[in-house]
Amino acid sequence: MQIRKDIYSKLSEIEGAAVYFGFPQRFNKMPVISYFEKKRNDSGICGGGVLTEIEIQVEIRNKGTVEALLESVDEKMTEMGFIRSFCQDMFDTDKELNLKITRYKGILNNADGRIYSSL
Questions:
Q1: Which of 37, 52, 61, 86 is 20 to 30 A removed from 101 (C-alpha atoms)?
Q2: Domains in the chain and their CATH numbers?
Q3: pLDDT, tens digit, for every residue of 38-75?
Q4: What distance in Å separates the CA atoms of residue 49 and residue 74, rounded to the nearest whole number?
């Protein structure tokens, strides 16, 4: 499973948002959703496959509110098998944008390519 590409595809389903892996290169289209892999650790073996703990950070930037976008991001990440583990409101003073930082965790079973919630 190519997590990076799969997340990009899933987040790109959110209508009207520009999606980037890593820090956004441009801010000419709003809103902006960016994501990156924060953590990846092999944590065990199950059914002949390695279990890998994954944490993804998703950042939502917008000139207006970010709450509706957060709901959409939550929905897409949950569909993939992730669970939100962190959420923080901030303000990007350089760009004068509302910023919501979220983190999602999951366990990737490399044998079947599925992501399971880690509680």
A1: 52
A2: 3-116 (3.30.2000.30)
A3: 999 887 777 667 899 999 999 999 999 999 999 999 99
A4: 27
Q: Give the CA angle between residues 85, 87, 88 to the nearest 5°.
A: 150
Which of these, 91, 24, 34, 25, lies nearest to 63 by C-alpha position? 91
Rounded percentage of the chain residues whose pLDDT exceeds 90: 66
Query: Please, which contacts does 33-38 make with residues 24 or more away whose CB atoms are closer than 8 Å?
Result: 33/58, 33/59, 33/60, 33/61, 33/69, 33/73, 34/58, 34/59, 34/61, 35/7, 35/8, 35/11, 35/59, 37/3, 37/4, 38/103
| Chain centre distance of CA 81 | 11
pTM of the model: 0.89
